[in-house]
Amino acid sequence: MHRSVFVAGLIMAGCLTSLAIGQSSHTDPWAPIEIGVLPPIASLTGGEWLKGDLHVHSRHSKESSNNSVATIISFSKSVGMDYLCITDHDNHVLGDVAHNTWTDPEFKSDSVLLLYGAEWTTTRGHGNAFSARPYDHQRLYDVRDQRDVVVGAVKKELGIHLSANHPSGKDHFGYSYDMVDSIEVWNSSYWPKNANAIMIWDDMLSSGRKLTGRGGSDAHHGAPETPDKATKNSFQAKSNYIGTPTTWVFAPARTSQAVVDTLTGGRVSVSANPYAPRVEFYADLDQDGKMDMMMGDNTKSTGKPVKFRVQLTGNTVPTASYTVNVVKDGNKFGTFQAIGKIPMVEFTDTPALLGRTYYRVTVEGPPTAYPQVPESMAMSGNMVGLSNPIYFNFDPNF
User: Does the pTM exceed 0.85?
Assistant: First the structure.
């Protein structure tokens, strides 16, 4: 071997040895550490389940048909909705939803809580804004093409809940998920198309982002009052309309603010329609037979086993078997069968003492009839509902 080649080899070997030694002493500054004190878990009894739809379009969205504000609110009331957010496309009114949807004389209800919102419709995808009170949506619209850090600052100043819409669809949310509070994991009655949205949700959860999963019908078209008012899209009202799916929130009060706050907090469940069973997910931390937390809650792990409970509440079929699929940290944990008048399953697992752990569930079973939207059952198939996660060791300051 030529001397210069030999010397070069020695130098390279020395560099590699040095790199290897340096790597062995590396300390990951982001490695899991014990988190500090977490906020106490709220009462499991001091609230009520409220159901609604968080993604609906009225006549103020130009591509909609036969869907006035009055029609939407009246239908929502007829199927027992507690709250509603009409989310018209802001680009159709150049951001001025405050003087269109919100000032529509029909934008009022004596029983349905009406949230203020709009679909933030941009070249980088769509998102929904939710608020308990009017806010300056024009400001959010004006920064739609700015950098995420600018958008995030405006969102924070407005004090609104921002949600990523249909994250895997054609108009997927193309902004940073660090500036949103929730993600639309179930868009429209057609459940199969949401598989990739669920995958994105799991990716965000697994990386420490505590994002609420919610639903939204994204309904644009109502049923025509007379045949002459029918459009080429009128058929959609029979398969996808208000409540397909329905998003439930366990709110501490029957107010618009409580709905928005609960949506942010995550005590949220999604069902195929307003009449379908609601999925409830709880955990008994010390296994004393009393549930201590529910979906959306976050606590420190003790390193000891935890008993979990999944139950269906509402219009179930006593003779049917419901399939409960449990996901842990983005991976399949187990599949269980629930039967009975109040179908229920329990399982036990030990969350990691150090580092994040989350569990969430989906439930399949017989479809629940929705007479007002009769073809929606064929679209949702056997999908009954899903829960938000129960969290362990998630840093609230992440």
Answer: yes
Task: State the pLDDT at residue 170.
Answer: 85
* Spatial separation of the C-alpha atoms in residues 129 and 127, rounded to whole Å: 7
CA dihedral 370, 376, 378, 382 (to 10 degrees): -70
Q: What is the dihedral of CA 76, 116, 212, 193, to 10 degrees?
A: 60
Per-residue pLDDT tens digits for 257-286: 999 999 999 999 999 999 999 999 999 999
Tell me the C-alpha distance between 87 and 214, whole Å.
15
Q: Are 81 and 111 in contact (CB under 8 A)?
A: no
Closest CA relative to residue 281, chosen from 239, 218, 336: 336
Which tens digit of pLDDT belongs to each residue from 240-255? Answer: 999 999 999 999 999 9
Amino acid of residue 360: R
Size of the chain, expressed as the number of residues it contains: 398
Reported as a pLDDT band with limits 50, 70 and 90, residue 22 is: low
Three-class DSSP category at 239: coil
Instruction: State the Cα–Cα distance between residues 133 and 150, nearest whole angstrom.
Output: 23
d(CA 69, CA 66): 10
| HEC secondary structure over 272-285 | CCCCCCEEEEEEEC
Cis amide bond preceding 367, omega within 30: no
CATH superfamily of 48-392: Metal-dependent hydrolases (3.20.20.140)
Better pLDDT: 3 or 78: 78
CB atoms within 10 A of CB 39: 9
Look at residue 15 and tell me whether its pLDDT is greater than 70. no
Residue 397 has a CB neighbour count (10 Å cut-off) of: 5
